[in-house]
Fold this sequence. Notes:
Blueprint: E1 4-8, H1 13-28, E2 36-40, H2 54-60, H3 67-84, H4 100-111, H5 115-129, H6 136-145, H7 150-155, H8 157-174, E3 181-184, E4 187-190, H9 195-203
Parallel strand pairs: 1-2
Antiparallel strand pairs: 1-3, 3-4
Helix pairs in contact: 1-3, 1-5, 4-5, 4-8
Amino acid sequence: xxxxxxxxxxxxxxxxxxxxxxxxxxxxxxxxxxxxxxxxxxxxxxxxxxxxxxxxxxxxxxxxxxxxxxxxxxxxxxxxxxxxxxxxxxxxxxxxxxxxxxxxxxxxxxxxxxxxxxxxxxxxxxxxxxxxxxxxxxxxxxxxxxxxxxxxxxxxxxxxxxxxxxxxxxxxxxxxxxxxxxxxxxxxxxxxxxxxxxxxxxxx
Length: 204
C-alpha cells in the first residue's frame, strides 16, 4: 500500500469528505492509518473570527435568494456525499473561525502518528457538533483523548505554527489551489474522488 499525502483544511466540507474517504479506504484494506500524511492548508488564513456563522457566511456569497435555498444547494453539492460515507453534518451549528490552532494540533498529532485520528475527531466535531477548533480547550481535549501531551504541545506552539507555514509553502510549490488534493510522487488527485479513483490512485 502506498503512502500518500493529502492537503486539507479542517474548515472545508470537501476535505471532511475526502479525508474520511481515504481513512475508510485504508481501514477497508487493513493498511495503517499512518500511510496518510495530512498537510495543512488554510483557505482563509486571515480570518479574524468576527463572522462566525458558517451558514450565513456561505449564503451571503452564494447569490441565492434564501437560506433554505442555499441549504438545499449545500446538500446536493457535498452534504449528501458526506452522509453517504457515514458522516453527519449540521450546517446550522458550524462555527467559522480561523483554523490556525486546529492545524497546529494536526502538526503535533502528526509527530506521533495520530494525524488520521486527530483529523477525524476535529472535523467531525466541527461539522457535526458545532465545536470551536480555535478554542484550545477543545483541541486539548482531543489531543488528550488521543493520549498526547497537552503541556508539551503548548510549549511548542511556535514550532507547530512554523510547520503549518511550511505546509502552506509546500502546497504553493506543488501548485495546490484547492482542497482536498491528494499527492503521491508527483501524481495529483484533486477533489473528494470516488472509491474507484482512490483504488487506482493508491494501488497502481
